[in-house]
Write a structure and sequence with these properties.
This protein is α/β, with parallel strands linked by helices and about 300 residues long. Helices cover about 35% and strands about 15% of the residues. The model has no long low-confidence stretch (mean pLDDT about 90).
Amino acid sequence: MADAEGILEARGEGELPPEGRPTRKKPIKGADTLDWGMRNRLSQLIRDDGRCQFLPIDHGYFQGPTHCLERPGETIRDLLPYADGLFVTRGVLRTCVDPDEGTPIILRVSGATSVVGKDLANEVITTSLEEMVRLNVAAVGLSIFVGSAYEKETLQNLAELVNRCEGYGIPVMAVTAVGKELSQRTARYLSLSCRIAAELGAKIVKTYYCEEDFDKVVSGCPVPVVMAGGPKCETALEVFQFVYDGLQKGAIGVNLGRNVWQHPHPVAMMKALNAVIHVDATPEEAFELFEESRQPGKAE
């Protein structure tokens, strides 16, 4: 222990350099007044440029074994270095993801329905707050089904989850799901869903990209928006094009699964998407990188 007699006195105000105004290192929409822990967790998921590339592998919670996701650990092994966050259920997290891996976790905490059930929208919260803390997650996510028969129940799920997580500084990502009604992917519907999610306390909203008026979807939501799948894409270039357009219209990143890990060249897709998101590459530049990265004639 230091000798008390050798401790120097604190300097006076006149001896100190001018105090600079504290500034946030990165732009995170709606997060300037968040508590330290909440802001820190969001900061783990969002890079200094204010953007992110999330990798979702939670599909099995309602689809069961999914093509190219039969063995999740093998699927993501070479993809995680390019992911800013991994969206996953606790079961797959514990059994298939290396705890020494540094990728931040977004934990899927809703479910209890399936593709063969009566209604996908009839979800409940499946995971306790203790589990979220025990698994040291950066955020949690659940689906809301605005306009469905279970609109009230899923919105109540979101509100209750926010209530539980706020006291522990855990951000909630709301997923604006549409179930089997893909025709609902319009700007008017998505704007409604995203705004309601933010009003109930979601810190991030995952929603679908739409070609028309997507800027209105983003501008009407006071928290960051990340894009799920967009229109059906036949080529990698089409994926890069809708991602690029969505970023120009205000989204901060993507949460793309099947467009990545069901592609014959998933690592090349991740690299190219990373360039669009974090390097501002154009779709054409990203496609060039994709072509350079993939191994001709051989799936990765």
